[in-house]
Design goal:
By secondary structure, the chain is mainly α. It has helices at 3-18, 22-34, 36-58, 64-67, 69-99, 104-107, 115-127, 130-139, 150-177, 179-182, 185-207. The longest helix is centred in the middle third of the chain and has 31 residues, at 69-99.
């Protein structure tokens, strides 16, 4: 595989990773509320979803999303519904914290998630996102020669995953270093409110996205 091709792909993947989106907001919500380990569980969920999208792209299965308007619509609505659901849950959590008087020790335990749940949140946020699928359908094939085997294609998926892991790991460590601030109950209420609005906005935007 040509080194220039690899560098170009990494540059494109990096732009996709660092651009504002649901992944960054999910990490920003998870780490203050549930800790560093849960944040890394989110990231591993992202990575697993990339390999799902990569596999579908390599074997041509997900081309249905482009060729079939109905398949794209169903997939899009599933993704939009999931993002809106996360947003609604965050808003409900913020509302509950605002209206229920609890001791500080109890408030710190509100809305923490298990490692398994954090992983699946990260996984579903990406695997149900048609924009990630479109990246693997539109951009990804341009960097893979028909003469190259699947292993070379998976090497690009791995490169994308590494960029993703590094970027969001930095976010996790930065958020965990300001733990005293992020553990503040008012901050958590504000964070849940902002997260809820943002995820509902992302979900609504995704629901209105057109195929092609």
């Amino acid at each position: 595989m040509d080194i220039t091709n690899i560098i170009t792909f990494i540059a494109v993947a990096t732009l996709l990773v660092v651009s504002p989106g649901p992944n960054g907001f999910l990490i920003t919500k998870t780490v203050p509320l549930s800790g560093k380990k849960a944040g890394f569980a989110n990231i591993w969920g992202f990575v697993a979803a990339f390999y799902v999208h990569g596999t579908l792209s390599i074997f041509g299965i997900s081309i249905l999303l482009v060729q079939s308007a109905q398949a794209f619509f169903i997939f899009k609505i599933l993704g939009a519904t999931y993002l809106i659901w996360i947003g609604i849950k965050a808003l409900i959590s913020a509302f509950k914290v605002n209206n229920i008087k609890l001791p500080d020790s109890a408030k710190k335990k509100i809305k923490t998630v298990s490692m398994r749940k954090a992983f699946w949140e990260g996984f579903l946020t990406n695997v149900l996102n048609p924009k990630v699928s479109m990246f693997y359908l539109a951009a990804f094939p341009q960097f893979v020669s028909i003469n190259e085997g699947a292993m070379n294609a998976y090497a690009l998926v791995t490169a994308h995953s590494v960029v993703n892991f590094v970027w969001f790991s930095v976010m996790v460590f930065m958020l965990s270093r300001i733990k005293n601030t992020t553990n503040n109950v008012r901050f958590k209420k504000w964070l849940n409110s902002i997260t809820g609005v943002v995820f509902i906005a992302f979900g609504s935007k995704l629901a209105l996205m057109k195929n092609g």
